[in-house]
Amino acid sequence: MEAIRHTKIRVNGINMHVAEIAGDGLPVLFLHGFPELWYSWRHQMLYLSALGYRTIAPDLRGYGETDAPPSAADYSAFHIVGDLVSLLDALGLDQVFLVGHDWGAIIAWYFCLLRPDRIKALVNMSVVFSPRNPVRKPIESMRAMFGNDYYICRFQQPGEAEEELARVDTALVIKKFLASRNPGLLCVPKEVGLGGNPNSKITLPSWLSEDDVNYYATSFNRTGFTGGLNYYRALDLNWELTAAWTGVQIKVPVKFIVGDLDLTYNTPGVKDFIHKGGFNKHVPFLQELVIMEGVAHYINQEKPQEVNQHIYDFIKKF
């Protein structure tokens, strides 16, 4: 880990914390999800840098040591992709291999939609591309399909989710997210609270140490969760702003990886979309699809060696 260099770079009007391992080879940009940090890519950074790649993992806007504007209106896909294009410019990089997971995967799809010229190829994990519905906003659709207790619907009201999460030790919140292996729909009634039982005990899986949990918890204790939650609160704003991109395909080479226990893969309709032609229609340059058996959502941390190999096997072709 001492090989990883940490810097602050001014991008798109904010200060961004960037973890990087220098290399003479092609650059790989990693985008993390919720509730994560650059740190969730530590295994991939070390592995690919040992093969000569230049590995770059920022704390995205709202996370860790990167600035966190308070308003959800500052977390549109245009803001986040703007940060990343500005980062590439600051680093003097014309193109990168892009690797995303969870919200990082959503941002990666937007990056490829808006600026495909900057992406050599994409390895995306967990969250499949979601084409824009021209007639109904995302939150309205989720409420109709999954109810008001669906976790993304529960995240919408500013301050409410933060208050519920604050009732539970931050380390326990991190454990509940990262160690979850329930592939079912994540619905949380208000009487249960998003943090759940503050006295619950969670046995950590072998791939997640107390030190790992403490790294995340220390950061989120300092920043709170609002930055990350604002991505969910900007979903409808993204819908409004991207009307001109309705029906536009993802036109970069793609490898998609998901675990069969991932709650996103088991969301109603997603398997049919992936396996019955919808995914290929919207992502015509999809070259590889990997369903990892017995693997849950936080795939790059749960199965680092396998994911490392999957990434390398794909990007070495370019």
UniProtKB/TrEMBL annotation:
Alphabetical UniProt keywords: Hydrolase
Catalytic activity: an epoxide + H2O = an ethanediol; (24S)-24,25-epoxycucurbitadienol + H2O = (24R)-24,25-dihydroxycucurbitadienol
Pathway assignment: Secondary metabolite biosynthesis; terpenoid biosynthesis
Record-annotated AB hydrolase-1 domain positions: 27-146
Listed SUPFAM superfamilies: alpha/beta-Hydrolases
InterPro entries given in the database record: AB_hydrolase_1, AB_hydrolase_fold, Epox_hydrolase-like
EC annotation from Swiss-Prot or TrEMBL: 3.3.2.10
Pfam families linked: Abhydrolase_1
GO molecular function, one term: epoxide hydrolase activity
Family label: Belongs to the AB hydrolase superfamily. Epoxide hydrolase family.
Function statement: Epoxide hydrolase involved in the biosynthesis of cucurbitacin and mogroside tetracyclic triterpene natural products (e.g. siamenoside I and mogrosides IV, V and VI). Cucurbitacins have cytotoxic properties and exhibit deterrent taste as a defense barrier against herbivores. Mogrosides are nonsugar highly oxygenated compounds used as high-intensity zero-calorie sweeteners; they also possess pharmacological properties such as regulating immunity, lowering blood sugar and lipid levels, protecting the liver, and acting as antioxidants and antitumor agents.
Stated name of the protein: soluble epoxide hydrolase
Species, as recorded: Cynara cardunculus var. scolymus
